[in-house]
Amino acid sequence: METDQLLVIGFIAIFSAASGYFKFLKPSGAVAAFLTGLLIWAGFDLKGLILLGVFFLTSSLLSRYNSIRKEHLVEIHEKDSARDWAQVAANGGTAALAGLANFISPDPVWLIVLAISIASANADTWASELGVLSKQQPVSIKSFKRVPSGTSGAVSGFGTAATAAGSLVIALTAGYLFGMESGWVFLVFLFGVAGSLLDTLLGAYLQAGFQCVRCHLPTEKMIHCSTPTKQISGFSRINNDAVNFISGFTVAIMGMSLYNIL
To answer: Is the entire prediction scored with pTM above 0.85?
Structure first.
């Protein structure tokens, strides 16, 4: 193995460890991030790492932005802002698979999979982290009623704008780094937005929803107020991580299919 390759591997390891040290990732998340970065670098060189880095840095910083106004999310969300291995796999797993596939059998289609999956993850993360700061409560796409900020399966105007912005950042970055045609940059943007919208749809109809039997708060947690919660919607085995992976993987495969057709 050459020196420059060892330096890149060392950089990925240090970056992952630092992310764990600064509480952006849990220890298991740091290990998963290292493996994800390694596979993306193997398949797409430094350009792939830069694209992944744009997603990771912006999503991590946004998770800390205006954190005081997000304190109530601890009661609603299953997990906190420090991502574990499952969250890393949910958001970066499809991109890592694209890196592995391009390493084994190089093909331009894997770049489309990489870009769309990261655009979808970034769009959904920006929507989640910025949408909760909206002055108005979001509307559930299932009941069409206003629900508490941070509720899965709900949308707001501000959150939708954040979705578009998050996807656009990745689409433009991918276009610049890899010299993608403008038409595909636009399609990556559209598929990224579609992935976030699909995430919302799955969150409303498939993701497990619970309610605290003591305070009656709707939550993703199976334990609340030190008491087991009652499932009120969705499927018990489908949590937010599963929804994130399914939505990103689905739109990436759709983009892959379109590329092969065209």
So the answer is: yes
